[in-house]
Design a protein that fits this description.
There is one protein chain. By secondary structure, the chain is mainly beta. Helices cover 12% and strands 40% of the residues. The protein has five helices and 36 strands.
Length: 481
């Protein structure tokens, strides 16, 4: 009882020489918290201490406190006990140790358990330059907040202890941030993070967690295809859906926009006709939608996880106040093998001209503008021409400062290619007609040959009936017969 009384006031290492010697034969206890050691304000948490079947009593100590925080006497034989906190507040936040008492004395203290309470003020977490990282590469994660936290903590999903803790640095526009270098990245691991902030005087009172940020490891599997039914050039206000499809059985299809700080949008697989894919409805097109989009394929199995990017430039139409003109040289109707040039021109200042073909999802062709005779223009050469070049074309202008903003389209220009397709079908019909006539002639000749053989068996003076009928129609034939 004397030892127990001593423990009521002396934390951890304040044990007498005799007690410490006896403790060397006892198992060191293990301490942990359920459901976790980082808990929101007002929630309940259970601290477990596991020692030996010889344990008769467990004590829980909190660093900075001179008295026992809590104690549990065992009424039955077991090797662990629990200490319950029903309403978590900043009073409960701190570092804890546990001990147990047995017939041979007190055990050594457990390793520390850091119990953290989460109070509010969520920071932001982003990846620089992108949440998509090549296998083996590194990425920088930025945790930032306007609340001026002194330190930031980065936690990896599935781990109970902080992965990294860094002293913050001031941001010129206000607030603080910390930059965490993560890597090298491997596709066999799930890379999902959250970050927290706290002040130096309350190291166990943290902010709310940031939104989760999942890093994607690219380059280890086949590319999906990203396309739109409208093509990559759309009009402001037009409803738009981006479609990501693949013949590989991916389970998720993240979609990201180049330069956007937001994490990729994620959609589950929507299989159709032997393909896996997902549709991303963006709604009516706004200027904020413009940019370069990337889709990825993502599998559930960690061993096969690894999205591969395919890019689609998404261009917002009608934002620049001019309309270019589109012409063709030497003419609209050309034969296969000839050379054709489409000329896009504008009297307004244009940095780049783009040429798109109706009905294709391929990105528009781009040419730098050249000034000639007071006109800005660009030439799009097609040589030699094939039937694949047949179609309707439009051209647009864009500026250097807003690469994804376009002018209104030029009037459509239809390019016709002769000598293929429709002409070849005409030749085929003509050849079939000739072959039919030839077959008919052969049939008639065969019939006449059979009639001739049959007539040889008749009297030579008696002509065949059809010959007689023919002669009857000829003046003077009867007299000659």
């Amino acid at each position: 009882s004397g030892q127990t009384s001593q423990r009521d006031f002396l934390p951890g290492l304040s044990v007498g020489p005799r007690t410490r010697a006896q403790a060397g034969t006892l198992l060191r206890p293990t301490i942990w918290a359920e459901p976790g050691s980082v808990m929101p304000w007002g929630t309940s948490v259970t601290i477990w201490c596991q020692g030996s079947l010889e344990a008769q009593e467990y004590h829980l100590y909190k660093e900075g406190e001179s008295r026992v925080w809590d104690r549990q006497k065992l009424m039955e034989l077991r090797d662990k006990t629990k200490f319950s906190i029903t309403h978590m507040t900043d009073v409960h936040a701190g570092r804890y140790h546990c001990y147990y008492f047995s017939p041979t004395g007190w055990s050594e203290p457990s390793d520390p358990l850091e119990l953290v309470v989460v109070t509010g003020g969520k920071p932001s977490l982003s990846a620089l330059p992108s949440p998509v990282v090549t296998s083996g590469g590194n990425v920088t994660l930025q945790c930032a907040s306007w609340m001026g936290f002194h330190r930031f903590v980065l936690m990896k999903e599935g781990e109970s202890q902080p992965s990294w803790t860094l002293v913050s640095q001031s941001v010129p526009t206000g607030g603080t941030k910390a930059l965490f270098s993560v890597g090298p990245m491997t596709p066999s691991v799930t890379w999902t993070f959250r970050c927290y902030g706290y002040y130096s005087n309350t190291p166990q009172v943290w902010s709310d967690p940031s939104d989760p940020l999942e890093l994607l490891v690219s380059g280890v599997s086949g590319k999906p295809t990203l396309l739109t039914q409208q093509g990559p050039v759309v009009t402001s206000g037009q409803s738009l859906t981006l479609q990501c499809h693949s013949g590989i059985g991916y389970h998720r299809f993240p979609l990201s926009r180049e330069g956007a700080p937001d994490p990729p949008r994620q959609l589950g697989r929507q299989p159709q006709a032997g393909l896996s894919g997902a549709d991303f409805p963006l709604g009516p097109v706004r200027p904020s939608h413009r940019g370069r989009y990337t889709s990825y394929g993502h599998r559930q199995s960690p061993q096969s996880k690894g999205p591969t990017a395919t890019h689609l430039p998404f261009l917002s139409l009608g934002q620049l106040p001019y309309i270019p003109s589109l012409s063709v040289q030497p003419r609209r109707m050309v034969a296969p093998g000839e050379n054709v040039t489409l000329l896009c021109q504008s009297q307004s200042s244009v940095d780049t001209f783009l040429l798109s073909k109706e009905g294709t999802a391929n990105p528009p062709l781009r040419r730098r503008s050249k000034s000639r005779a007071g006109q800005h223009q660009a030439e799009f050469s097609m040589s030699p021409v094939t039937s694949a070049h047949r179609g309707t074309y439009r051209c647009y202008g864009s500026s250097r400062t807003s690469a994804y903003l376009l002018s209104q389209p030029s009037d459509p220009l239809e390019l016709l290619v002769s000598g293929e397709s429709s002409d070849s079908r005409d030749y085929m019909v003509e050849n079939l007609t000739r072959m039919g006539v030839a077959v008919l002639i052969l049939v008639v000749l065969g019939i006449l040959l059979l009639e001739a053989q049959h007539s040889q068996r008749r009297t030579p003076d008696t002509p065949p009936s059809h010959v007689a009928e023919l002669w009857a129609c000829i003046p003077g034939a009867q007299r000659r017969l």
